[in-house]
Amino acid sequence: MPSAPPPATRTLVVGESVADVVQPLQGAATTHPGGSPANVAYGLARLGHPVTLLTELGHDPHGALLREHLASAGVDVLVQPSSTPRRTPVATARLGADGAATYEFAIDWTLDATPLPPGTGHVHAGSIAAYLAPGADAVTELLTAARADATVSFDPNIRPGLLVDHADAVARTARLVAAADVVKASDEDLAWLYPGEDPLAVARRWADAGAGLVVVTHGADGAVAVAGGRTLRVAPVAVRVADTVGAGDAFMAALLHGLHRRGLLGPGPARDHLHAAGVDALGNVLATAARAAAVTVGRPGANPPTLAELEA
Question: Which residue in 1, 49, 69, 178 is a FRET match for 151, CA 20 to 30 A apart?
């Protein structure tokens, strides 16, 4: 494993950008930039990484909000003109008494297959874009092809309200996990995909399928990671919860950030280094990802930490 952080390689994040309308139990709704892949791209850029987001945005006020938000962190937004929708996707998050969110969506996903932008060393995808037809097929093709030149990560971030075919979702998940070097999922994702199965057993199965690192998050109970045939428990970080919007995406961005800095993502030997690292060598990376999630749940909306906040 390299002793010093290698030069940053560009990450391509593929997936939806969404205007998140947050409706609290009391008071007026507010609109925040969101969408899981967009949140990951934004979080990575705030941590100092060069990032391109391949997404779909409409030419409307919500689209302008999202473009401005992503640009403020330095995200390079790539939108295919042929797949630009008339309206920017919208997700309405209704908050419960504990701050947890339930979602309603108005979203289409029609992405065409596209080659990797030059200089891409890592590709991340997940959530709605990985499952919603017709664009989901292009995402699977892109991640599978990317393995020749880049490492790959995947976060299912399941949205049950948009998935009508459970068997198809399970099959898509298996194909994407097989293409990934890093997989992060929540216990809620796994409960929907594999009802009644032990999340740790699923994580081990995914690691056996070829992923170098599999992480299952358990909200306030922390996370568990599987790598190199071993398991590591990740302690939660105590924080007063404002809401949980974007917490998993902040965890994902900080996880990729930590792996990048250790030379475990990118072209060349990075994949081999990742698969040889094991969970003991990744403890600090996972603890940092947990801190990033804690910062995010401590304030409203999908607002991940900057590098200065993460290192404070």
Answer: 69
Q: Which of 99, 125, 91, 33 is nearest to 240 (CA)?
A: 99
The pLDDT tens digits for 190-229 are 999 999 999 999 999 999 999 999 999 998 899 999 998 8
Q: What Cα–Cα distance (Å) separates residue 10 from each residue in 7, 28, 73, 224?
A: 10, 39, 15, 28
| The pair of three-digit structure tokens given for residue 149, joined into one six-digit string | 């030149």
Our measurement of the distance from residue 204's CA atom to the centroid of its chain's CA atoms, rounded to an integer in Å, reads 20
d(CA 5, CA 160): 39
pTM of the predicted structure, to 2 decimals: 0.91
Torsion of CA 133, 138, 139, 142, to 10 degrees: 170
> In angstroms, rounded to a whole number, what is the distance separating the alpha carbons of residues 197 and 176?
19
C-alpha to C-alpha distance for 297 and 240, rounded to whole angstroms:
8
Q: How far apart are CA 143 and CA 122, in angstroms?
A: 10
pLDDT tens-digit profile of 36-67? 999 999 999 999 999 999 999 988 899 999 99
Residue 94 DSSP one-character state:
E
